[in-house]
């Protein structure tokens, strides 16, 4: 049996790393946890967090291009919507991990590469 508190902490670190918003930490923390942990739920949360972070970068790049193409008009709608989804889904993932530590969280609307 795996330690529930350790599972919560490591899963929380994986999903919450994106709040640090630097390339090194937001993707590095879940990768490190994935490599170090032997807990299958923590590994699933780490993979899901990596996929979410990659999707956030992809969608942010698309929004940036659309904002440039439309001379900033698309940015008025897409940037706030992007931040709302990004922060909202991350907070929801953290709450899910804390309430249900034995179930890995799955983000909606993302491509899973890892």
Largest sheet: none
| Unreliable residue runs | none
Shape: elongated
Number of strands: 0
User: What proportion of the residues form beta strands (DSSP E)?
Assistant: under 5%
Textual characterization of the structure:
The chain has 114 residues and is an all-alpha fold. The protein has helices at residues 4-16, 23-36, 40-69, 73-99. The mean pLDDT is 93.
What's a quick, concise take on this entry?
With 114 residues, this protein is an all-alpha fold. The chain has helices at residues 4-16, 23-36, 40-69, 73-99. α1 (4-16) runs antiparallel to α4, α2 (23-36) packs antiparallel against α3 and α3 packs antiparallel against α4 (73-99).
Which SSEs are present, and which pair or pack?
Elements: H1 4-16, H2 23-36, H3 40-69, H4 73-99
Helix pairs in contact: 1-2, 1-3, 1-4, 2-3, 3-4
Observed structural traits:
single chain; 114 residues; 74% helix
């Amino acid at each position: 049996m795996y330690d529930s508190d350790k599972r919560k902490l490591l899963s929380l670190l994986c999903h919450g790393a994106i709040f640090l918003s630097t390339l090194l930490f937001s993707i590095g923390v879940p990768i490190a946890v994935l490599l170090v942990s032997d807990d299958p739920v923590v590994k699933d949360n780490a993979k899901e967090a990596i996929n979410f972070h990659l999707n956030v970068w992809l969608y942010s790049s698309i929004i940036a291009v659309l904002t440039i193409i439309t001379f900033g008009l698309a940015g008025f709608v897409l940037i706030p919507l992007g931040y709302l989804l990004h922060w909202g889904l991350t907070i929801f993932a953290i709450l899910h991990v804390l309430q249900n530590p034995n179930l890995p969280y799955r983000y909606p609307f993302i491509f899973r590469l890892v």
